[in-house]
Amino acid sequence: MENKLKRIFCRITPGTVLREGLDNILDSGTGALIVLDSHENIEELLDGGFEINCNFTPQRLHELSKMDGAIILNKDATNIKFANVHLQPEKIYETFESGTRHRTAQRVAKQTNNLVIAISERRNIITLYKGEDRYKVKKLADVILEGNQAMKTFERYKHVLERALKNITLLEFDRMVTLSEVVTVLQRFEMLIRIRIEVKKSIIELGVEGKFLQIQLEELFQGVLKEQEDFIKDYMKFEIEKNTFNTIKDKLMELGELELLEVENIAGVLGYGKTTATFDVELEVRGYRLLNKVSRTTRKDTEKIIAKYESLSKILEVTEDELAEIRGISKFKARSIKRGMKRLKITAEWEK
Fold first, then answer.
1. What is the dihedral of CA 39, 44, 46, 48, to 10 degrees?
2. Is beta strand 70-74 parallel, antiparallel or unpaired with respect to 32-37?
3. Which domain covers residue 302, as residue numbers?
């Protein structure tokens, strides 16, 4: 979805010359029908008008929009190819629009898969069409407001996730983790990821105006996906055929908004039963998440340690010398791991 939006909005985001031309048309109170001919298959739909073949400027687009016909640009919106043309798409392509300009725009987009822009003279709104997709461009002030609100929601959920992780870290050290805590944390991860998608949509629409929002989002989201991967690997049931991190991620994304709120669905994705009794069963954590938090420990080191000891409880019991027996784990690194795990426990207790 994110990549699709980028492809659609990359030409018309604030800061681009095409957006400047569209804004000029909006400000003048005139309408327009504009096609970005990326597939070079538009000419068979053209009737009348005239060929221009000149460089694009916002001012030229504005002046040409004063005529009734459509304007045809090249795919990069750097060249104006035709103006004042009448488009004749085939009527087999369905449209639910009411106005003539918008009905034509939707049919042309479906028939040619080009990006078609319709500007309503009466409602002063820009609508984008691409294939089967339709998107109404919001006003810049509205997008900024929505983006800021989505970012505030993201920050709140990030705080909720961090609290849940601190809680389960203590339970992992005390060997008291149940499925109930696990699905709650995984639910927090997935909700944060979905809120990030909404923030990204606003950033894409904002173009250059969204750069500070982008920096803030990247800073807050840093490390979240890796920690989620480690968390899933800590608790998923490996014995289920083809149950890997990627398949679990895909299954989580397939859950609808209401389905995600049902913890039984998340338990099922991990490979556990959905009965209430299952949620009180104590689980053994493998230790991926906590080991990867220790400095000087690589992900390869973590894999080797878990391959030998299988669970966090056993890893906590072994000595530095026993850890150093693993190929690639030096005595210095073994000492760092043991001390690092102690610091993680102390930090979790202190922050409780």
1. 140
2. parallel
3. 286-352
Structure tokens at 306: 């878990």
Q: Does the pTM of the predicted model rise above 0.85?
A: no
Question: For residue 275, what are the CA distances in angstroms to 281, 284, 292, 327?
Answer: 11, 19, 32, 42
Considering the domain architecture, whether residues 15 and 25 belong to the same structural domain is answered as yes
**SS3 at position 292:** coil
Q: Which CATH number is 24's domain given?
A: 3.40.1700.10
Pair (77, 54) in one structural domain:
yes
Residue 134 main-chain phi, psi, to 5 deg: -140, 135
206-250 pLDDT per residue, tens = 888 889 999 999 999 999 999 999 999 999 886 554 557 788 888
Among 122, 137, 152, the domain-final residue is 137
State pLDDT tens for residues 68-97. Answer: 899 999 988 999 999 999 999 999 999 998
- Beta-ladder partners of 54: 80
CATH number reported for the structural domain that contains residue 240 in this entry: 1.20.1260.110
C-alpha to C-alpha distance for 25 and 11, rounded to whole angstroms:
16
Query: Cα dihedral angle (267, 273, 279, 284), rounded to 10 degrees?
Result: -80
